[in-house]
Amino acid sequence: MNDSIKRIPSLDGLRAVSVLLVVFSHLVGPLPYNIENAVGNLGVRVFFVISGFLITSILVAEVEKTSTLSLTKFYFRRTLRIFPAYYFYLAAVFLASAAGIVQIPPESFFSSLTYTSNYIEPGVWELGHSWSLSVEEQFYLLFPGLILLCGLARTKKCLIFIVLLTPFIRVVNFLILESYVGFEIPVWYVFGFHTNMDALAVGCLLAVYRKQLHDNEQYKNFLRSPAAFCFIPLTIAAIVYNYSYNIIYFGVGITLLNLLIGSLIDWVTVNCSSAAGKILNSKIFVSVGLVSYSIYLWQQPFSKYDAEKWWTHFPYNIILLTAFSLLSYFLIEKKSLYLRQILENKLFNSNSKNLKVQNELSRKTV
Questions:
Q1: What is the pTM of this model?
Q2: pLDDT digit string (tens) for 51-70?
Q3: CA separation for the pair 162, 158 (Å, rounded)
């Protein structure tokens, strides 16, 4: 694998911003124009696009080197990256429920355990955020097989088709449900894989077309210009400000937001020496970005602004969120990645250099 993608500047910092947006959206009360939900949605979408970008970078590098993909190796790596911290969180919540600390019906755990909560709503706050993890897990299950079956050239066409098709799927969903007066919006309407797959596809397309884009002088000049610095963030902010469940937002707004996030990812990696890049690559932002997966898992029980429990009130919520996130990261995440490194070397006979590069990339991927 090319060492140039060993560490991508600014992405850890951008992941830190994303998870902080999610935490902020849960900590604050209702804001004008539903801003708190829009900010949380933005944070999750940035995670989706980054995941698509990094996973595709890993898979494309393997295809270019070996002319094939090892699905066994990919799923082995994803399992030890994702499952330990996630199921540790679910086990802790289950024990808290069994002890009467929180009230969660046992059946509510089913969809979270099976990564289907983006279609089967758990119905409890402590498990509600598992919808986005379900979307990502479904992506991990499907996308490598698509590359293996179709090859890179056809996969690129499929990704473009997905980006064009998904807005129509969202609009059809909206029009069907709009005809039901007083109909409660089902979870799949907003959280389903079929209504979010274009965010992941945009990240994938950035990975496969990035070199071609950077060979285009006009595109490169735009990325490095003050115009890009102003246009991309301000347009994202305008869409977030106008966040609303209507046909325009589902049809155009989300698609444009995904594309702008892809542009933002490319912008922050190219302009890593700018003032914004220096902030994203600072020690504090990189550190938060590295722990972002555990923070995302554990922010849910401590960040419900209107909960009556003492652990959801400041400063206890911040102290406990920090403590449990660090515990999850150092006790579960880091140890499972270390185990993965040892087992991968034995099971797949990877040489140490390639193993180190793969681990560096996967370390930054939710």
A1: 0.91
A2: 999 999 999 999 988 888 89
A3: 6
